[in-house]
Amino acid sequence: MPTVRRSDVPPDVWAKLTAAADHACLPPGIVATPRKRKRTSASARTSSATRWSIRLELACRVVSEANRRDHWTIQRRRAELQANALHAAIAGAGLTDHTPPLPVVVTFTRTGRQQLDDDNLARAFKSLRDRLAEWIGVDDADPLVSWRSDQHTGEPGVTVTVASRHRLE
Fold it and tell me: How much is the pTM?
């Protein structure tokens, strides 16, 4: 079971984000939306005063898929394990029925024994990126979501941070 940590989120905002059904109690600027998100107006996006982040630690490994010559069933099984770890972390945080307000910055941090180069690192997170975009309710090419990747050496694992992004206007 993956560990889930909340950081940089005030307790009152966290409680309001994880409220089961009462969408009226959300703070100004945060709107609970259905799973499939449609384009929203600027008023439904994160206001400039609201800053938040959610940190999920996944007990899975990501590997350089570009350099592997595994059979497609092995690649698919690895992608399913990553997706299951992500869904378990989201459920453990109580965010299954809630999606973060847009725009957001998503940072994937890989911890592994060796460093990957930047193009292999981006390819290693492809499955997780697709599944996280599905949960947010957007396509992974949507400009309202910025994707970043980072890596450290250590025991294998993945940390996903979803944070508010403020528009430059």
Answer: 0.67
